[in-house]
Amino acid sequence: MRKLFLILGIFLMMNFEIYGFTQKEKIQETLSKLGVKQELIDETIALDYEIRDTQYFEEDEKIIRERVAKLEKLLQKDKRNYIAAQALITIFESKISGDYKKYLDLFEKYTPYEYTKTFSKMMYALDQGNMPEFEKIMDEIPKKYNDPAIVALSKIFVAKNPDEKQMLTEKVLKLLKEESERRKIGVSDEEYHLMKLTYYLNKIRRLFDNGEVKQAVAEYLNNVANDDVSNEIRNYNLRAEVILYFNVVIMNEEIKEVVLKINNGVKLEDTWIADKIQKETEKDKDFLAKMVN
Fold first, then answer.
1. C-alpha to C-alpha distance for 178 and 193, rounded to whole angstroms
2. The pTM is what?
3. Residue 116, CB-side half-sphere exposure with 13 Å CA sphere
């Protein structure tokens, strides 16, 4: 489409935030360079989409174990599949106990992003309670990588103070706004968009808790609702999209000014996610409950 409509493409690049490094593209490009067969790349892309919300939202241990089994089976077909190894590391770190050193070793060997090797070793040391090693690696990162986005990302992983984490997230969002910067360090459009959704969910909740209800809803309508992102990116982050939208709809009901509340309601209904929820609910009446619970 960009080749056929070059002028339009240039116009869009000038006027909107364009995403151009999707999770699918990232997997395709990096695994191809490693020599992984296309059949396995396609399988990896499909499984990556299936398990995409495991780390943040899935609590059913049976489902988690099933996803681990699928990832292990995929990794057995080609040890170079660092995407599968990384997913296993993430699930073990966030959802289940167990030593995942064998996956970490494969990830470090095959990931094309050098800094993620350091991050992974750092988080493994933390997970194992090896604080001297963790602190050593943490101190090395600013010296080893002359990139403010990488340094900020490393701090986000371990920040305990919510205000600090929010400040660092805002910094990373600004530093990685350009697709070229995201591509350089391997942050896909979907990963960037999830970071943005998480940032605004935290910001909006903080405003609401402080009694700034109108500003909370305005933040969503002005900065999230009309983001120029593809359906592919939104669907990848569907649960996060629904949760954020659901929170804002509830908050809007707390606004005392009737006209403002109605106007906001109209704007909220005229969004991609509102249309998506309606269509999915027509197919499954329990869709919304499954998303927010």
1. 12
2. 0.89
3. 20
